[in-house]
């Protein structure tokens, strides 16, 4: 019960933080280009806040490994300041079936809310306005591809043994690039 209250409080803080523009980075700082899919490598986007200006993450969270990313993802989901700092200023939205097809480019402030949340130690699909207890669970798969981590997810029903019984709705994905010594959200696939 206490975890549910903490998660609800964290979600409320996250929603509040998402409606406010992040603090501007110092003008003297020149961020490096964000990671781009191969199809858009020539169209470089600005990176997130310079590494020195970012809030600290748990030890090992910036390791370019499965375990490092798992630590990063939990901090990214739980803390709005970390989510803002480790998200590229511009997010590309692409077609999941044909990633070369650009759907939109959104600033971090305009982007859809991040849909993956952790509720009572279970990955769930965040829907604004829905209480934690009503959020659908998701099947979440991670794939490390060089300097990119892809999170594929889809709403799903699970058996009592935690096996996926069936998936519900269309799949989605987030892609995090490894930039400035850590992970940052750069791409959404839907």
Detail the poorly predicted runs: 1-47
Percentage of β-strand residues: 25-35%
Based on helices, strands and strand pairing, what is the structural class? alpha+beta
Question: In one word, what is the shape?
Answer: globular
Annotation field: number of helices? 3
Rg, please?
A: 16 Å
- Spatial strand arrangement across the major sheet: 2-1-8-7-6-5
Distance between the termini: 33 Å
Describe the protein.
With 190 residues, the protein is of the alpha+beta class. It is built from three helices and eight strands. Strands 2-1-8-7-6-5 form a six-stranded mixed beta sheet. The protein has a two-stranded antiparallel sheet with strand order 3-4. A hairpin with a 2-residue loop joins strand 3 and strand 4. The longest helix is centred in the first third of the chain and has 17 residues. It is globular. The N terminus is likely disordered.
Task: Please tag this protein with its features.
19% helix, alpha+beta, globular, two-stranded antiparallel ribbon
């Amino acid at each position: 019960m206490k975890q549910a209250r903490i998660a609800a409080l964290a979600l409320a803080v996250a929603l509040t933080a998402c409606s406010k523009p992040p603090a501007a980075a110092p003008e003297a700082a020149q961020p490096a280009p964000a990671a781009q899919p191969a199809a858009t490598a020539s169209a470089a986007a600005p990176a997130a806040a310079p590494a020195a200006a970012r809030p600290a993450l748990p030890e090992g969270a910036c390791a370019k490994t499965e375990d490092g990313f798992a630590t990063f993802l939990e901090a990214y989901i739980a803390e709005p300041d970390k989510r803002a700092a480790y998200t590229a200023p511009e997010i590309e939205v692409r077609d999941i079936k044909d990633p070369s097809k650009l759907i939109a480019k959104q600033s971090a402030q305009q982007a859809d809310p991040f849909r993956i949340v952790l509720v009572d130690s279970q990955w769930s699909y965040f829907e604004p306005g829905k209480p934690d207890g009503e959020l659908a669970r998701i099947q979440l798969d991670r794939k490390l591809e060089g300097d990119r981590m892809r999170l594929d997810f889809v709403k799903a029903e699970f058996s009592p043994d935690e096996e996926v019984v069936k998936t519900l709705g269309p799949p989605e994905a987030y892609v995090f690039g490894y930039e400035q010594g850590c992970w940052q959200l750069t791409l959404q696939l839907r």
